Amino acid sequence: QVQLVESGGGLVQPGGSLRLSCAASGIFTTMSWYRQAPGNQRELVAAITGAGSTNYKDSVKGRFTISRDNAKNTMYLQMNSLKPEDTAVYYCHTAAGHWGKGTLVTVSS
What we know:
With 109 residues, the protein is mostly beta strands. Helix content is 0%, strand content 49%. It has no helices and ten strands.
């Protein structure tokens, strides 16, 4: 059974940084980070292919960096210059349609 386990969320002040991790139970090609803020639909934040090609939501470009370590079956999201509007539950997703349970990121002073 596929398992995706996110970690690294928490409370951070505006302008701060967090690094999210997604540990996967197997090897997947394209993997993504999504987020869902209260009252909003889930949205794609960033994606990375097995070869390392990346794409980002416009509002996080230049602030977030997605990466992966295939040897560890782990994907990361480095989030810098965080803003209150980045507050959401962040989910790990695979191209095969698997979802993690999410990790909460709260950006507040």
